[in-house]
Design a protein that fits this description.
Layout: H1 9-17, H2 23-41, E1 44-47, H3 51-63, E2 75-79, H4 106-113, E3 117-122, H5 156-163, E4 170-173, H6 180-186, E5 189-192, E6 213-217, H7 220-230, H8 248-254, E7 265-269, H9 279-294, E8 298-302, H10 310-325, H11 346-357, H12 360-373, H13 379-400, E9 405-409, H14 425-429, H15 436-441, E10 445-452, E11 459-465, H16 471-489, H17 502-509
Parallel strand pairs: 2-3, 2-4, 7-8, 7-9
Antiparallel strand pairs: 1-3, 4-6, 5-6, 5-10, 9-11, 10-11
Helix pairs in contact: 2-3, 7-8, 8-16, 10-12, 10-13
Length: 513
Protein backbone atom coordinates (compact mmCIF):
# COMPACT_ATOMS: atom_id res chain seq x y z
CA UNK A 1 0.00 0.00 0.00
CA UNK A 2 3.01 2.35 -0.25
CA UNK A 3 1.54 3.88 -3.42
CA UNK A 4 -1.26 5.29 -1.29
CA UNK A 5 1.08 7.95 0.06
CA UNK A 6 1.63 9.38 -3.42
CA UNK A 7 -2.07 9.93 -4.15
CA UNK A 8 -3.56 13.39 -3.97
CA UNK A 9 -6.14 13.86 -1.23
CA UNK A 10 -8.88 14.06 -3.88
CA UNK A 11 -7.80 10.77 -5.50
CA UNK A 12 -7.42 9.06 -2.14
CA UNK A 13 -10.88 10.30 -1.10
CA UNK A 14 -12.34 8.83 -4.30
CA UNK A 15 -10.80 5.43 -3.56
CA UNK A 16 -12.09 5.59 0.01
CA UNK A 17 -15.60 6.46 -1.15
CA UNK A 18 -15.64 3.51 -3.58
CA UNK A 19 -14.25 1.31 -0.78
CA UNK A 20 -11.37 0.31 -3.04
CA UNK A 21 -9.17 1.33 -0.12
CA UNK A 22 -9.94 1.56 3.59
CA UNK A 23 -9.06 4.45 5.83
CA UNK A 24 -7.10 2.02 8.02
CA UNK A 25 -4.95 1.08 5.02
CA UNK A 26 -4.42 4.71 4.02
CA UNK A 27 -3.64 5.79 7.58
CA UNK A 28 -1.26 2.89 8.17
CA UNK A 29 0.59 3.67 4.93
CA UNK A 30 1.19 7.23 6.09
CA UNK A 31 2.13 6.17 9.63
CA UNK A 32 4.65 3.74 8.12
CA UNK A 33 6.03 6.54 5.98
CA UNK A 34 6.40 8.75 9.06
CA UNK A 35 8.19 5.95 10.89
CA UNK A 36 10.48 5.43 7.91
CA UNK A 37 11.56 8.99 7.08
CA UNK A 38 10.66 11.40 9.86
CA UNK A 39 13.83 10.65 11.76
CA UNK A 40 15.56 12.57 8.97
CA UNK A 41 12.86 15.16 8.20
CA UNK A 42 11.61 15.87 11.74
CA UNK A 43 8.28 17.18 10.45
CA UNK A 44 6.34 15.79 13.44
CA UNK A 45 6.62 16.63 17.11
CA UNK A 46 3.96 14.11 18.08
CA UNK A 47 2.37 11.17 16.26
CA UNK A 48 -1.24 10.39 17.14
CA UNK A 49 -1.46 6.99 18.82
CA UNK A 50 -5.22 6.92 18.18
CA UNK A 51 -5.02 7.48 14.41
CA UNK A 52 -5.74 3.87 13.42
CA UNK A 53 -8.66 3.65 15.82
CA UNK A 54 -10.13 6.81 14.28
CA UNK A 55 -9.60 5.40 10.79
CA UNK A 56 -11.31 2.13 11.79
CA UNK A 57 -14.36 4.02 13.07
CA UNK A 58 -14.60 5.91 9.73
CA UNK A 59 -14.48 2.60 7.85
CA UNK A 60 -17.21 1.17 10.07
CA UNK A 61 -19.43 4.22 9.56
CA UNK A 62 -18.95 4.02 5.78
CA UNK A 63 -19.72 0.28 5.79
CA UNK A 64 -22.91 0.98 7.73
CA UNK A 65 -24.09 3.27 4.95
CA UNK A 66 -23.62 6.55 6.79
CA UNK A 67 -23.24 9.64 4.59
CA UNK A 68 -19.76 11.02 5.17
CA UNK A 69 -17.86 14.12 4.07
CA UNK A 70 -15.89 14.06 0.82
CA UNK A 71 -12.57 13.81 2.67
CA UNK A 72 -13.71 11.31 5.30
CA UNK A 73 -10.95 8.80 6.04
CA UNK A 74 -8.16 10.93 4.54
CA UNK A 75 -5.19 11.43 6.92
CA UNK A 76 -4.13 14.96 7.87
CA UNK A 77 -1.28 16.57 9.83
CA UNK A 78 -1.92 19.47 12.22
CA UNK A 79 0.45 22.33 12.96
CA UNK A 80 1.34 22.41 16.64
CA UNK A 81 -0.06 25.95 16.98
CA UNK A 82 -3.58 24.44 17.07
CA UNK A 83 -5.09 23.05 20.25
CA UNK A 84 -5.96 19.36 20.11
CA UNK A 85 -7.74 17.16 22.62
CA UNK A 86 -5.61 14.13 23.45
CA UNK A 87 -2.42 15.43 21.83
CA UNK A 88 0.20 17.88 23.15
CA UNK A 89 -0.03 21.44 21.84
CA UNK A 90 3.27 23.21 22.46
CA UNK A 91 3.46 25.85 19.71
CA UNK A 92 7.06 24.70 19.33
CA UNK A 93 7.98 26.06 22.79
CA UNK A 94 9.42 24.55 25.95
CA UNK A 95 7.09 26.75 27.99
CA UNK A 96 4.18 24.54 26.83
CA UNK A 97 6.05 21.24 26.75
CA UNK A 98 3.65 18.36 27.37
CA UNK A 99 0.54 20.58 27.65
CA UNK A 100 -2.59 18.77 26.44
CA UNK A 101 -5.53 21.15 25.88
CA UNK A 102 -9.02 20.31 27.18
CA UNK A 103 -10.55 21.43 23.86
CA UNK A 104 -9.99 21.39 20.11
CA UNK A 105 -9.37 24.45 17.97
CA UNK A 106 -12.42 25.07 15.80
CA UNK A 107 -10.50 24.15 12.63
CA UNK A 108 -9.44 20.86 14.24
CA UNK A 109 -12.98 20.15 15.46
CA UNK A 110 -14.29 20.70 11.91
CA UNK A 111 -11.64 18.39 10.50
CA UNK A 112 -12.60 15.66 12.97
CA UNK A 113 -16.31 16.17 12.27
CA UNK A 114 -15.65 15.80 8.53
CA UNK A 115 -14.03 12.42 9.20
CA UNK A 116 -10.40 13.25 8.47
CA UNK A 117 -7.83 11.33 10.50
CA UNK A 118 -5.27 13.43 12.44
CA UNK A 119 -1.84 11.85 12.12
CA UNK A 120 -0.14 14.10 14.67
CA UNK A 121 1.28 17.55 15.36
CA UNK A 122 3.88 19.18 13.13
CA UNK A 123 6.98 21.13 14.05
CA UNK A 124 7.12 24.93 13.86
CA UNK A 125 9.12 27.97 14.86
CA UNK A 126 8.41 28.76 18.51
CA UNK A 127 5.07 30.57 18.74
CA UNK A 128 5.24 30.88 14.93
CA UNK A 129 8.13 33.36 15.14
CA UNK A 130 10.46 32.56 12.27
CA UNK A 131 10.82 31.84 8.57
CA UNK A 132 12.78 28.59 8.68
CA UNK A 133 11.51 26.29 11.49
CA UNK A 134 14.97 26.59 13.04
CA UNK A 135 13.54 28.40 16.07
CA UNK A 136 11.58 25.40 17.30
CA UNK A 137 12.54 24.47 20.85
CA UNK A 138 12.56 20.85 19.65
CA UNK A 139 15.07 21.18 16.83
CA UNK A 140 14.76 22.17 13.16
CA UNK A 141 12.74 20.47 10.44
CA UNK A 142 14.62 19.53 7.27
CA UNK A 143 13.50 20.13 3.69
CA UNK A 144 12.75 16.79 1.96
CA UNK A 145 14.26 18.12 -1.28
CA UNK A 146 17.60 18.62 0.46
CA UNK A 147 17.97 17.68 4.10
CA UNK A 148 20.63 20.34 4.62
CA UNK A 149 18.12 23.07 3.74
CA UNK A 150 15.32 24.74 5.68
CA UNK A 151 11.67 23.92 4.88
CA UNK A 152 10.50 27.49 5.42
CA UNK A 153 8.64 28.73 8.44
CA UNK A 154 6.99 29.04 10.71
CA UNK A 155 4.98 26.12 9.34
CA UNK A 156 7.90 24.15 7.97
CA UNK A 157 6.72 20.97 9.69
CA UNK A 158 3.36 20.94 7.90
CA UNK A 159 4.92 21.75 4.51
CA UNK A 160 7.70 19.18 4.94
CA UNK A 161 5.23 16.48 6.01
CA UNK A 162 3.20 17.01 2.84
CA UNK A 163 6.28 17.29 0.59
CA UNK A 164 7.79 14.10 2.09
CA UNK A 165 4.52 12.19 1.50
CA UNK A 166 4.02 11.74 5.23
CA UNK A 167 0.55 13.30 4.91
CA UNK A 168 -1.61 14.28 1.93
CA UNK A 169 -2.98 17.33 3.76
CA UNK A 170 -2.01 19.56 6.66
CA UNK A 171 -3.34 22.49 8.61
CA UNK A 172 -1.07 25.50 8.96
CA UNK A 173 -1.21 29.09 10.16
CA UNK A 174 -0.09 32.18 8.26
CA UNK A 175 0.78 35.41 10.10
CA UNK A 176 3.19 36.89 7.56
CA UNK A 177 3.63 34.05 5.08
CA UNK A 178 4.00 30.95 7.26
CA UNK A 179 1.91 28.79 4.91
CA UNK A 180 2.89 30.31 1.57
CA UNK A 181 6.65 30.71 2.07
CA UNK A 182 7.13 27.07 3.24
CA UNK A 183 4.95 26.06 0.29
CA UNK A 184 7.32 27.83 -2.09
CA UNK A 185 10.50 26.23 -0.77
CA UNK A 186 9.06 22.70 -0.43
CA UNK A 187 7.12 22.55 -3.70
CA UNK A 188 3.71 22.37 -2.02
CA UNK A 189 0.49 24.40 -2.31
CA UNK A 190 -0.24 26.76 0.58
CA UNK A 191 -3.22 29.06 1.04
CA UNK A 192 -3.77 32.00 3.40
CA UNK A 193 -7.56 32.55 3.43
CA UNK A 194 -9.27 35.91 3.81
CA UNK A 195 -8.81 37.10 7.39
CA UNK A 196 -11.82 36.00 9.44
CA UNK A 197 -13.04 33.36 7.00
CA UNK A 198 -11.55 30.52 9.07
CA UNK A 199 -11.94 30.60 12.84
CA UNK A 200 -8.86 31.35 14.94
CA UNK A 201 -10.45 29.93 18.09
CA UNK A 202 -8.02 27.47 19.63
CA UNK A 203 -5.03 28.73 17.64
CA UNK A 204 -2.29 29.78 20.06
CA UNK A 205 -2.05 33.45 19.18
CA UNK A 206 1.00 35.21 17.81
CA UNK A 207 -0.46 38.42 16.38
CA UNK A 208 -4.25 38.38 16.57
CA UNK A 209 -4.88 40.87 13.76
CA UNK A 210 -2.64 38.94 11.36
CA UNK A 211 -2.96 35.20 12.18
CA UNK A 212 -5.02 33.02 9.83
CA UNK A 213 -5.47 29.24 9.67
CA UNK A 214 -5.24 27.65 6.22
CA UNK A 215 -4.62 24.48 4.17
CA UNK A 216 -1.37 22.87 3.01
CA UNK A 217 -1.49 20.28 0.23
CA UNK A 218 0.11 19.03 -2.98
CA UNK A 219 -2.57 20.33 -5.39
CA UNK A 220 -4.85 23.35 -5.63
CA UNK A 221 -7.95 21.14 -5.57
CA UNK A 222 -6.77 19.42 -2.39
CA UNK A 223 -6.34 22.79 -0.66
CA UNK A 224 -9.80 23.83 -1.85
CA UNK A 225 -11.36 20.65 -0.45
CA UNK A 226 -9.75 21.21 2.95
CA UNK A 227 -10.64 24.91 2.91
CA UNK A 228 -14.28 23.92 2.37
CA UNK A 229 -14.09 21.87 5.58
CA UNK A 230 -12.62 24.58 7.84
CA UNK A 231 -14.29 27.75 6.51
CA UNK A 232 -17.28 29.50 8.08
CA UNK A 233 -18.48 31.64 10.95
CA UNK A 234 -17.60 30.76 14.54
CA UNK A 235 -19.30 32.69 17.38
CA UNK A 236 -16.30 31.91 19.62
CA UNK A 237 -14.07 34.05 17.39
CA UNK A 238 -14.98 37.75 17.56
CA UNK A 239 -13.22 38.42 14.24
CA UNK A 240 -15.04 35.62 12.39
CA UNK A 241 -16.92 36.74 9.27
CA UNK A 242 -20.59 35.85 8.83
CA UNK A 243 -20.34 35.45 5.05
CA UNK A 244 -21.86 32.56 3.14
CA UNK A 245 -18.92 31.07 1.29
CA UNK A 246 -19.12 29.30 -2.09
CA UNK A 247 -17.62 25.87 -2.68
CA UNK A 248 -13.91 26.37 -3.17
CA UNK A 249 -13.60 22.86 -4.62
CA UNK A 250 -16.13 23.81 -7.32
CA UNK A 251 -14.11 26.98 -7.98
CA UNK A 252 -10.93 24.92 -8.40
CA UNK A 253 -12.67 22.51 -10.75
CA UNK A 254 -13.94 25.46 -12.79
CA UNK A 255 -10.34 26.48 -13.33
CA UNK A 256 -9.71 23.20 -15.16
CA UNK A 257 -12.10 24.18 -17.96
CA UNK A 258 -10.50 25.18 -21.29
CA UNK A 259 -9.83 28.90 -21.59
CA UNK A 260 -10.09 29.61 -17.87
CA UNK A 261 -7.33 32.23 -18.11
CA UNK A 262 -8.55 33.87 -21.32
CA UNK A 263 -8.95 37.61 -20.79
CA UNK A 264 -8.01 37.54 -17.11
CA UNK A 265 -6.16 40.70 -16.09
CA UNK A 266 -3.08 39.74 -14.08
CA UNK A 267 -1.08 42.38 -12.24
CA UNK A 268 2.65 41.99 -11.58
CA UNK A 269 3.56 43.99 -8.48
CA UNK A 270 6.77 45.89 -9.23
CA UNK A 271 7.72 46.18 -5.54
CA UNK A 272 7.49 42.38 -5.04
CA UNK A 273 9.81 41.31 -7.84
CA UNK A 274 13.02 43.31 -7.89
CA UNK A 275 16.56 43.51 -6.60
CA UNK A 276 17.59 40.89 -4.07
CA UNK A 277 15.57 38.09 -5.68
CA UNK A 278 17.49 34.94 -6.56
CA UNK A 279 18.18 34.61 -10.30
CA UNK A 280 16.55 31.17 -10.48
CA UNK A 281 13.38 32.47 -8.81
CA UNK A 282 13.17 35.39 -11.25
CA UNK A 283 13.73 33.07 -14.23
CA UNK A 284 10.94 30.69 -13.22
CA UNK A 285 8.63 33.65 -12.55
CA UNK A 286 9.35 35.00 -16.04
CA UNK A 287 8.52 31.54 -17.44
CA UNK A 288 5.22 31.55 -15.56
CA UNK A 289 4.33 35.02 -16.86
CA UNK A 290 5.09 33.88 -20.42
CA UNK A 291 2.77 30.89 -19.99
CA UNK A 292 0.00 33.13 -18.65
CA UNK A 293 0.37 35.40 -21.67
CA UNK A 294 0.27 32.44 -24.05
CA UNK A 295 -2.91 31.23 -22.32
CA UNK A 296 -4.66 34.51 -23.09
CA UNK A 297 -4.18 36.41 -19.83
CA UNK A 298 -3.54 40.14 -20.01
CA UNK A 299 -0.40 41.02 -18.06
CA UNK A 300 -0.23 44.47 -16.44
CA UNK A 301 2.69 45.83 -14.43
CA UNK A 302 1.39 47.69 -11.39
CA UNK A 303 2.94 49.57 -8.51
CA UNK A 304 2.09 49.73 -4.80
CA UNK A 305 4.45 52.30 -3.24
CA UNK A 306 3.38 51.49 0.33
CA UNK A 307 4.68 47.91 -0.02
CA UNK A 308 8.19 49.31 0.41
CA UNK A 309 7.33 49.97 4.05
CA UNK A 310 5.16 46.88 4.64
CA UNK A 311 7.88 44.71 6.16
CA UNK A 312 8.91 47.48 8.58
CA UNK A 313 5.32 48.06 9.65
CA UNK A 314 4.75 44.32 10.06
CA UNK A 315 7.76 43.92 12.35
CA UNK A 316 6.34 46.57 14.65
CA UNK A 317 2.71 45.39 14.64
CA UNK A 318 3.56 41.71 15.10
CA UNK A 319 5.96 42.07 18.07
CA UNK A 320 3.58 44.51 19.75
CA UNK A 321 0.67 42.08 19.55
CA UNK A 322 2.93 39.13 20.41
CA UNK A 323 4.22 40.80 23.57
CA UNK A 324 0.62 41.18 24.71
CA UNK A 325 -0.49 37.68 23.68
CA UNK A 326 2.47 35.95 25.32
CA UNK A 327 1.95 37.70 28.66
CA UNK A 328 -0.43 34.87 29.60
CA UNK A 329 2.48 32.44 29.89
CA UNK A 330 3.22 33.40 33.47
CA UNK A 331 3.87 30.02 35.22
CA UNK A 332 0.68 30.41 37.27
CA UNK A 333 -2.13 28.84 35.24
CA UNK A 334 -0.59 26.26 32.92
CA UNK A 335 2.65 25.29 31.23
CA UNK A 336 6.20 25.31 32.53
CA UNK A 337 6.97 26.53 36.06
CA UNK A 338 10.53 27.21 37.19
CA UNK A 339 11.07 27.99 40.86
CA UNK A 340 14.33 29.75 41.75
CA UNK A 341 16.59 27.96 44.21
CA UNK A 342 15.30 28.58 47.69
CA UNK A 343 11.87 29.64 46.44
CA UNK A 344 10.76 33.08 45.41
CA UNK A 345 7.89 35.48 44.91
CA UNK A 346 5.35 35.11 42.10
CA UNK A 347 7.27 37.72 40.13
CA UNK A 348 10.55 35.84 40.58
CA UNK A 349 8.97 32.52 39.56
CA UNK A 350 7.43 34.21 36.53
CA UNK A 351 10.76 35.75 35.51
CA UNK A 352 12.63 32.46 35.92
CA UNK A 353 9.97 30.56 33.97
CA UNK A 354 9.91 32.97 31.04
CA UNK A 355 13.70 33.15 30.97
CA UNK A 356 14.00 29.37 30.69
CA UNK A 357 10.82 28.68 28.71
CA UNK A 358 11.18 31.18 25.86
CA UNK A 359 13.79 30.94 23.13
CA UNK A 360 15.94 33.82 21.83
CA UNK A 361 13.70 34.85 18.93
CA UNK A 362 10.61 35.00 21.17
CA UNK A 363 12.49 37.10 23.72
CA UNK A 364 13.74 39.41 20.98
CA UNK A 365 10.23 40.07 19.69
CA UNK A 366 8.70 40.48 23.15
CA UNK A 367 11.29 43.15 23.97
CA UNK A 368 10.77 44.90 20.64
CA UNK A 369 6.98 44.78 20.99
CA UNK A 370 6.96 45.99 24.58
CA UNK A 371 9.20 48.90 23.59
CA UNK A 372 6.94 49.82 20.65
CA UNK A 373 3.91 49.92 22.96
CA UNK A 374 5.59 51.79 25.81
CA UNK A 375 4.63 55.30 26.92
CA UNK A 376 6.12 57.94 24.67
CA UNK A 377 6.81 55.54 21.81
CA UNK A 378 3.35 54.14 20.98
CA UNK A 379 2.45 56.83 18.42
CA UNK A 380 5.93 56.98 16.93
CA UNK A 381 6.17 53.22 16.32
CA UNK A 382 3.00 51.14 16.68
CA UNK A 383 0.69 54.00 15.66
CA UNK A 384 2.79 54.83 12.60
CA UNK A 385 2.92 51.15 11.59
CA UNK A 386 -0.88 50.98 11.67
CA UNK A 387 -1.01 54.01 9.36
CA UNK A 388 1.26 52.20 6.91
CA UNK A 389 -1.08 49.23 7.17
CA UNK A 390 -3.95 51.45 6.04
CA UNK A 391 -1.88 52.62 3.07
CA UNK A 392 -1.17 48.98 2.12
CA UNK A 393 -4.90 48.22 2.24
CA UNK A 394 -5.64 51.24 0.05
CA UNK A 395 -2.99 50.23 -2.48
CA UNK A 396 -4.51 46.76 -2.75
CA UNK A 397 -7.98 48.24 -3.18
CA UNK A 398 -6.74 50.49 -5.98
CA UNK A 399 -4.89 47.67 -7.73
CA UNK A 400 -7.89 45.35 -7.66
CA UNK A 401 -9.88 48.03 -9.44
CA UNK A 402 -7.39 47.57 -12.30
CA UNK A 403 -6.76 43.79 -12.33
CA UNK A 404 -8.46 40.51 -11.38
CA UNK A 405 -5.53 38.96 -9.55
CA UNK A 406 -2.03 39.97 -8.49
CA UNK A 407 1.04 37.75 -8.80
CA UNK A 408 4.58 37.72 -7.46
CA UNK A 409 7.19 35.15 -6.44
CA UNK A 410 6.08 33.53 -3.17
CA UNK A 411 9.58 33.92 -1.69
CA UNK A 412 12.64 35.82 -2.88
CA UNK A 413 14.93 32.75 -2.70
CA UNK A 414 14.83 28.99 -2.64
CA UNK A 415 15.47 27.11 0.61
CA UNK A 416 18.72 28.29 2.18
CA UNK A 417 21.10 26.08 4.20
CA UNK A 418 20.16 25.35 7.81
CA UNK A 419 22.11 27.71 10.07
CA UNK A 420 22.94 30.26 7.36
CA UNK A 421 20.66 33.06 8.62
CA UNK A 422 19.81 32.04 12.16
CA UNK A 423 22.13 34.68 13.67
CA UNK A 424 20.99 37.41 11.27
CA UNK A 425 17.41 38.40 12.21
CA UNK A 426 17.10 41.06 9.50
CA UNK A 427 18.09 38.62 6.74
CA UNK A 428 15.62 36.11 8.16
CA UNK A 429 12.80 38.68 8.25
CA UNK A 430 13.29 39.51 4.55
CA UNK A 431 12.18 35.99 3.59
CA UNK A 432 8.60 37.20 4.11
CA UNK A 433 9.01 40.23 1.86
CA UNK A 434 6.44 39.14 -0.73
CA UNK A 435 3.90 37.54 1.59
CA UNK A 436 3.55 40.14 4.36
CA UNK A 437 1.40 42.68 2.46
CA UNK A 438 -1.48 40.22 2.12
CA UNK A 439 -1.55 39.68 5.90
CA UNK A 440 -1.52 43.40 6.60
CA UNK A 441 -4.50 43.85 4.27
CA UNK A 442 -6.36 40.67 5.30
CA UNK A 443 -6.67 39.47 1.69
CA UNK A 444 -6.28 35.84 0.54
CA UNK A 445 -3.07 34.52 -1.01
CA UNK A 446 -2.12 31.22 -2.63
CA UNK A 447 1.37 29.85 -3.29
CA UNK A 448 1.75 27.39 -6.14
CA UNK A 449 4.91 25.50 -7.21
CA UNK A 450 6.36 26.95 -10.43
CA UNK A 451 9.42 24.81 -11.11
CA UNK A 452 12.98 24.41 -9.87
CA UNK A 453 15.67 27.07 -9.77
CA UNK A 454 18.52 26.44 -12.22
CA UNK A 455 21.35 27.10 -9.77
CA UNK A 456 20.35 24.66 -7.00
CA UNK A 457 17.51 22.47 -8.34
CA UNK A 458 15.21 23.50 -5.48
CA UNK A 459 11.52 24.47 -5.68
CA UNK A 460 10.24 27.97 -6.33
CA UNK A 461 6.71 29.29 -5.90
CA UNK A 462 4.37 31.80 -7.51
CA UNK A 463 1.94 33.73 -5.30
CA UNK A 464 -1.56 34.71 -6.40
CA UNK A 465 -3.50 37.36 -4.44
CA UNK A 466 -7.17 38.34 -4.76
CA UNK A 467 -9.46 40.86 -3.03
CA UNK A 468 -10.80 40.06 0.44
CA UNK A 469 -13.61 37.49 0.33
CA UNK A 470 -12.61 36.42 -3.20
CA UNK A 471 -10.82 33.21 -2.18
CA UNK A 472 -12.76 31.32 -4.85
CA UNK A 473 -11.06 33.45 -7.51
CA UNK A 474 -7.67 32.24 -6.27
CA UNK A 475 -8.72 28.62 -6.54
CA UNK A 476 -10.07 29.06 -10.07
CA UNK A 477 -6.98 30.82 -11.42
CA UNK A 478 -4.62 28.76 -9.28
CA UNK A 479 -6.03 25.49 -10.64
CA UNK A 480 -5.87 26.83 -14.20
CA UNK A 481 -2.24 27.86 -13.75
CA UNK A 482 -1.37 24.53 -12.12
CA UNK A 483 -2.90 22.74 -15.11
CA UNK A 484 -1.00 25.03 -17.47
CA UNK A 485 2.30 24.15 -15.76
CA UNK A 486 1.50 20.46 -15.94
CA UNK A 487 0.46 20.49 -19.60
CA UNK A 488 3.56 22.49 -20.54
CA UNK A 489 6.14 20.62 -18.49
CA UNK A 490 4.45 17.22 -18.51
CA UNK A 491 4.17 16.97 -14.74
CA UNK A 492 3.32 18.83 -11.57
CA UNK A 493 6.36 19.77 -9.52
CA UNK A 494 5.33 17.68 -6.53
CA UNK A 495 5.06 14.58 -8.72
CA UNK A 496 8.82 14.96 -9.15
CA UNK A 497 9.47 15.51 -5.44
CA UNK A 498 12.40 13.40 -4.26
CA UNK A 499 12.45 10.71 -1.66
CA UNK A 500 15.10 11.03 0.98
CA UNK A 501 17.99 9.18 -0.62
CA UNK A 502 20.60 11.10 -2.60
CA UNK A 503 20.38 8.81 -5.64
CA UNK A 504 16.60 9.13 -5.81
CA UNK A 505 16.86 12.91 -5.37
CA UNK A 506 19.05 13.10 -8.48
CA UNK A 507 16.67 10.94 -10.52
CA UNK A 508 13.64 12.86 -9.33
CA UNK A 509 14.94 16.27 -10.39
CA UNK A 510 16.33 15.14 -13.75
CA UNK A 511 14.69 17.10 -16.55
CA UNK A 512 12.51 19.25 -14.29
CA UNK A 513 12.11 22.88 -15.33
Amino acid sequence: MTDLIHLSAADLASKLQSREVSSVEATKAHLDRIAGVDGDVHAFLHVNAGALATAKSIDERRAAGETLGELAGVPIAVKDVLCTIGMPSTSGSKILEGWIPPYDATAVAKVRAAGLVPLGKTNMDEFAMGSSTEFSAYGPTHNPWNLDRIPGGSGGGSAAAVAAFEAPLALGSDTGGSIRQPGAVTGTVGVKPTYGSVSRYGAIALASSLDQIGPVSRTVLDSALLHDVIKGHDPRDSTSLRDEWPSFADAARAGLAPGSLQGVKVGIVRELNGDGFQAGVKARFADAVALLTAAGAEIVEVSAPSFEYAISAYYLILPAEASSNLAKFDSVRFGLRVTPEGGGTVEQVMAATREQGFGPEVKRRIILGTYALSAGYYDAYYGSAQKVRTLVQRDFSRLFDEVDVLISPSAPTTAFPIGEKIDDPLAMYLNDLTTIPANLAGIPGLSLPMGLADEDGLPTGIQLMAPAREDARLYTYGAALEQLFESTWGHTLISKAPSLSVSEQSAATEGVV
